[in-house]
Design a protein that fits this description.
By secondary structure, the chain is of the alpha/beta class. Helix content is about 30%, strand content about 25%.
């Protein structure tokens, strides 16, 4: 049976990659391509909504899908734990599914999982992430997800040591982890997780070089999972066996960010 897909944000870079993957699949068919300014009623003819729009629009897309009883796969950045908490009860009440994927790259998923596995052994942890200058939100969704997983892994050890975080140059704290965002030309995506302890340091680095090649395998996995999912699931690691135990991020209280295009500081201080 063919799954009919409404692709929101289909004219963007990631949207083009997702469209290419779907076009190569026999059991999926794109029936509507929407921009961030399209009428969301256009998703009504679909079985699955794929949202790769913008942080400011994404929450409206997700709510529109839930209201129409449609499953939704979200690849848009800007979804912190607190923002996801806004829609979780709506998904449960509707009996639908919402899959949030901070990063479709299998290497990125492994990098975040390895960072979480190492987190209890190092008192000091910071994240430096870099993207091209056109990325509108910061920190990245991948960095936020990594910080949340690190915090979950350190449930017994407690928050990381992060001195002088009252100074703006020390980055934005997410789940006690300072994140530093670079936006510059010549970069696709890079994340460094720097873990430091007495007399040593460990850096876990992931580089995206070719997004189409890096994301395609994860997109295929996420599409297959999203069309039958019930409830909210966050992270591609839930659908693949990566051989590393990834702790579940702790549930968060809802925080309405008012559609601000980016991660909201008050929503990421847990």
């Amino acid at each position: 049976m063919t799954t009919r897909v409404a692709l929101v944000g289909g004219t963007g870079k990631l949207g083009g990659i997702v469209r290419g993957v779907i076009d190569d699949l026999d059991d999926f068919d794109v029936v509507a391509v929407l921009t961030s300014r399209s009428d969301l009623n256009e998703i009504a003819a679909s079985d699955l909504v794929v949202d790769v729009s913008t942080p400011a629009v994404s929450i409206d897309v997700v709510r529109a899908a839930i209201e129409r009883g449609l499953n939704v796969l979200v690849g848009t950045s800007g979804w912190s734990n607190e923002r996801i908490a806004l829609v979780r009860p709506l998904v449960d009440a509707a009996g639908t599914g919402a899959v949030f994927i901070p990063n479709f790259s299998l290497g990125s998923v492994l990098g975040s999982a390895l960072s979480a596995a190492a987190a209890p052994f190092f008192p000091s942890i910071e994240i430096v992430e870099a993207h091209r200058e056109t990325k509108v939100d910061s920190p990245s969704g991948t960095a936020v997800r990594t910080a949340e997983l690190i915090a979950a892994a350190r449930a017994d050890a407690g928050p990381v040591d992060s001195p002088h975080v009252d100074q703006r140059a020390r980055g934005q704290q997410v789940a006690s982890v300072p994140i530093h965002s670079l936006r510059r030309p010549g970069v696709v995506a890079r994340q460094d997780v720097v873990l430091s302890g007495a007399g040593e340091s460990l850096t876990i680095t992931h580089d995206t070089v070719d997004p189409a090649l890096a994301y395609a395998p994860g997109i295929r996995i996420a599409l297959q999972a999203a069309r039958t999912q019930r409830g909210v699931v966050v992270g591609l690691e839930n659908f693949i066996d990566i051989g590393v135990r990834v702790p579940a991020a702790a549930p968060a209280a809802p925080v309405d960010d008012g559609g601000v295009p980016g991660q909201v500081a008050r929503a990421t201080g847990a």
